[in-house]
Amino acid sequence: MKAFRKFLDKQARHFQKGGKLESLYYLFEAIDVLFYTSGKVTRSSSHIRDVMDLKRMMITVMVALVPAVAMALYNTGLQANLAIAGFSMIPTSNWQQSVISWLGIGFNPQNIWANIFHGALYFFPVYILTLFVGGFWEVLFACVRKHEVNEGFFVTSLLFPMILPPTIPFWQVALGISFGVVIGKEVFGGVGMNILNPALVGRAFLFFAYPAQISGDKVWVAVDGVSSATPLAQLADPLLQFGTSWRYAFIGFIPGSMGETSTLACLIGAVILIYTGVGSWRIIISVLAGMLVTSLFFNIVGSDTNPMFQVTPAWHLVLGGFAFGTVFMATDPVSAAMTEKGKYLYGLLIGFLVVLIRVINPAFPEGMMLAILFGNVFAPIIDRIFINANVKRRRTRYVNG
User: Which residues contact 61 (CB under 8 A, 6 or more apart)?
Assistant: First the structure.
């Protein structure tokens, strides 16, 4: 690493003011601070030093995502290998399956490494493309606005592939992350100014613009010609037979978006985020409480025509993107509520809305994405309510005191 440090120091003069590559200074700085602590120091007082800076916060979130990424690789390959095992002959209709056949790895769903390798051939191309295209927009806006490239995009670039189906076309990945970064964040002024989660904005755009590639029963298993509805879709449609155990759904052995299926992996991530103070336990608990109360209410009311009324809180927890959204999306410190009391109301709103959307509209059983986006929109209003109440209380105390 010392050699790399010397190399960066030697090249720095080309990117500084007056250098040949002055316009790319912020790209150089982004690479520098990615590997090393910034060499800039403040010259005036007073300042507060905190061990948890933005870089360490983003690294913590990425570490918390590791279990979910591991399950994304394994389950994506598992679902594909299980589907292929049902064929009389191995289909090689896409390049991923052709690579596996050429390497002789096999499609055995009982082989953990075969599952992981097969899943990696779907996940990592989407992740690399997201990182490249989204990074391009980040660097472009940073150079135009003459500010540093923020590390926050590394989290967005990892979250976005996790909420996509494995069969998503690459051009839609590029289009979705472009929309999420540019429209969801940069038009508001960049990191810290956006009111919506960029990854969810990109997915929402793809959902409404290209529903055939982001929904239905043919996009969740990475084998052409195989139809497999998600468990939530099975529950919503009385004509479909529900064949998933709660234990398998909790672990994540079900069809779905690549990184959203495992509640267990999300709980491990939640422990890491809460322990480090990066994720708000108030929001997580409130989302769970909102979901619990609302789903129990619908269980009591019941319905003879809508089977979603009977879905218990335990099933809402493990199906769809509820756990992933609660832990990694709802707790986004930029787009979530910031006041301590406001976080409770913000979380309750999301928990209420996700069940409301899932139950009342069976045609759209997965409601976590829209619930969080609605929560993002109302977060500033929620914060303003509690800030105004606090100002009024302090003013009254001052006058009476």
Answer: 155, 273, 278, 328
